[in-house]
Please model this.
Amino acid sequence: KMVQDMPILKFPKEDFAFLLSSDTVLSKRWNHMDEEENLFSLLGPAAGTWFRFISDTQLLYKTININDWKVVVIAKAHILDARLAPIFKDYLQKGGTLICLDPEIYTYGPDATNLEFLAKDLFGAEKVAINSSANLRLKLTNHPVWNGFSKKVSPAILGSAKYKLIPAKGTQVLANFSDGTTAITMKMYPNNGKAILVSIPALRAFA
Model:
């Protein structure tokens, strides 16, 4: 009864939302089940940001509105419903920023259909497998989107990268690997919408 009578806490407005694919989460092996906890620790207590976890199911059933957040980050989504693609595109065309930390996004739909063409259309880039990332470093470009941050960060040593990106015409490059291949891209949309694709699987890299 005491809990029932407690006033509702006034949480601050979230800085951004983190989108998790329900089908992707359900398909994980047992030894990958702690990836979302790592993500929470990295961005919550470590970075001090305030965010909300959302799911593809909530978007499809319209229990939430993606336009409530200026930035939406896709954490892990190699299995993703094709019906989300127009929702993402509408969000981007209205000026939203979509950041994908999973280079394998839209590898499959829930019925195992290959949907990689949707990822290429949304982000203006396609992934290509690399043999080894053992000696690769990540180098940020001097793109204005970094707001000078690229001059302050030391190049990271990578061991978990499996792909490089091939940007389509008009897609901007935000970071390269030390061998000159592309690591992070950004496709611009009307109203300053941004679709950013990262080729390093962040959930494993920062675990």
About this structure: The mean pLDDT is 84. The radius of gyration is 18 Å.
